[in-house]
């Protein structure tokens, strides 16, 4: 079978590998029918040292169950399933609290903990299949597949940003970042009833989709000028919630500038810094809160799927390009160049 | 009249100053009957440069209203009142949300914004008297005065730590620090129903009072050993809430080590660092949250006072020494030496 590897920054290759097979009684083998490239894949695409490669790529996919281990009971051969970007047992104390990304099972974790598997491939061995996979009630060629695929990561991640920030009908929200996560954070804030949603982004096609998803205002300026414009839109005080969907220190500093006293900065994605200001001169003085983390998307699938199935929400609009496996390396480059917002892969 | 000044580290003096008087129509003049030294006063006591002094000291007091400006309506001459450590109008959007420490009124702020006033004195001009002062239904010599005085800062601050952490009946809590704020954070967590309250502190008399206030466990070890002991007490996972009542980087790092995935570190007092780890390797990976700030104690006075008046709670037990104004300099030194937990002043 064929699978995607990253050998180093800017160096993605699709190669032949041994077929994935069921190894443990809790595994399922899934033949991938739809996958995609994640914004988080762009961090190593910009910086991976060849000494740290090659890395098997892909952590978002939909596919058909082809085989199951003897203990798997919730999915069976022929089922169409979606896989979250984190493997979990869905039964431990953390999963029961909806924090599947902190699942206590020894086999739980992110896909990079499975160096011989990845979603940007023809097939994947899925550990803890009962906990991880969720059956989809549509056919593999349904027009809903792009939207359902977003349940594996990008929609759940945007939704987590809004949930972790406690967004509700009384909340003014700023979303920093017009990438796919940022746009779906807008859609999520709208779904949760936010009264004002300011999208900070400068790519017109993307901010246009952001308005379609529910942004009430768009601010294209960054830094001090962007902060001033958000404050002007909010009576001088900033917004209760800032959903930070970029991951850089400058985005964090921008968040500090526009969050309202008593408000919350909610971070998703993969922050590219470890230390940051949180003392009296930044977070502390006005009781600003910090929330967020890797999204427990498994916890949101049942909640969000009905809105996709009945057509209420179309998060799949973030996909603006489709390719087969051969086109994956070019897809990475197009996303890095911001020519493509998010690339869907049909292996 | 006499008032307390800090001239530099270790140098506190009580001096004669011009009598405080009402200046603005919204002011009240309060004759102080009970005041105290705050743990936060010990930070400058350890580090104040003489070039930055002298500073008028004291931000917690009870007293009798002696005069009022023409616009003051909620208190009158002869009333016994308590003053929170922040001046606020109690009517702006932030005050209505219970965030009095971010009051939008131009005269609002901390007492260090009033360089000619301070609570460790015979009298204080109180700005925004209607918003700031709260009438007490007892006499100045009531046995309840020490407990009622804690409403001006230390009890409200401990309570804020627990409230900001969302402590409830299903919460396991660790309190870091056996100072007066830490001990009253224990009392607050108990009041909010926490099922387990681990107090980290090594001063036997203080941890004894912590047990009386509701601590279910005491851990005297610090650092890695302390973290290991808390984990042992909590099935390996740490506690949902960590109330950080010390303010040092080592206390923050200790908090990171004992907070449960998905849990919250709630900080009160005055953090002595600005930058700290909050990235994937610390807060982010397990969706840890950060909360807290200067406590809006004004918001909690009406809620907490009944429990003091009916004898349910005795937060005044944190006072283990009493002095007149002459004894204030020695009181600072005793608190710095950890000989006294908290010193009450009867001017």
Automatic annotation (TrEMBL), chains A, B:
Cofactor: Zn(2+)
Keywords: Metal-binding, Oxidoreductase, Zinc
Protein name: Threonine dehydrogenase-like Zn-dependent dehydrogenase
InterPro entries: ADH-like_C, ADH-like_N, ADH_Zn_CS, GroES-like_sf, NAD(P)-bd_dom_sf
Residues in Alcohol dehydrogenase-like N-terminal domain copies: 25-137
SUPFAM superfamilies: GroES-like, NAD(P)-binding Rossmann-fold domains
Family listed: Belongs to the zinc-containing alcohol dehydrogenase family.
Alcohol dehydrogenase-like C-terminal domain boundaries: 180-292
Keyword Metal-binding: yes
Organism, scientific name: Nonomuraea angiospora
């Amino acid at each position: 079978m064929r699978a995607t590897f990253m050998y180093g920054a800017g160096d993605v290759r699709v190669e032949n590998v041994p077929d994935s097979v069921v190894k443990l009684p809790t595994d399922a083998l899934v033949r991938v029918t739809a996958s995609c490239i994640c914004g988080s894949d762009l961090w190593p695409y910009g910086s991976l040292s060849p000494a740290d490669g090659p890395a098997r790529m892909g952590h978002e996919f939909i596919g058909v169950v082809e085989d199951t281990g003897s203990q798997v009971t919730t999915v069976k051969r022929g089922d169409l399933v979606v896989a979250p970007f984190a493997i979990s047992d869905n039964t431990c104390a953390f999963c029961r609290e909806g924090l599947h990304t902190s699942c206590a099972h020894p086999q739980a974790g992110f896909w990079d903990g499975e160096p011989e598997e990845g979603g940007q491939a023809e097939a994947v061995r899925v550990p803890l299949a009962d906990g991880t996979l969720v059956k989809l009630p549509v056919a593999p060629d349904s027009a809903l597949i792009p939207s359902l695929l977003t349940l594996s990561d990008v929609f759940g991640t945007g939704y987590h940003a809004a949930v972790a920030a406690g967004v509700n009908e009384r909340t003014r929200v700023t979303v920093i970042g017009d990438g796919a996560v940022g746009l779906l954070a807008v859609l999520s804030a709208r779904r949760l009833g936010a009264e004002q949603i300011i999208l900070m982004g400068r790519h017109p096609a993307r901010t246009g989709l952001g308005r379609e998803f529910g942004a009430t205002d768009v601010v294209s300026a960054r830094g001090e000028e962007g902060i001033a414009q958000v404050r002007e839109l909010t009576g001088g005080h900033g917004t209760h919630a800032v959903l930070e969907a970029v991951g850089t220190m400058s985005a964090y500093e921008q968040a500090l500038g526009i969050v309202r006293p008593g408000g919350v900065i909610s971070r998703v994605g993969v922050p590219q810094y470890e230390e940051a200001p949180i003392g009296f001169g930044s977070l502390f003085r006005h009781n600003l809160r910090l929330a967020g983390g890797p999204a427990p998307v498994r916890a949101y699938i049942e909640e969000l799927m009905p809105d996709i199935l009945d057509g209420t929400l179309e998060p799949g609009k973030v996909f603006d390009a489709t390719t087969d496996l051969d086109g994956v390396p070019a897809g990475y480059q197009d996303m890095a160049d911001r020519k493509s917002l998010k690339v869907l892969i049909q292996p």
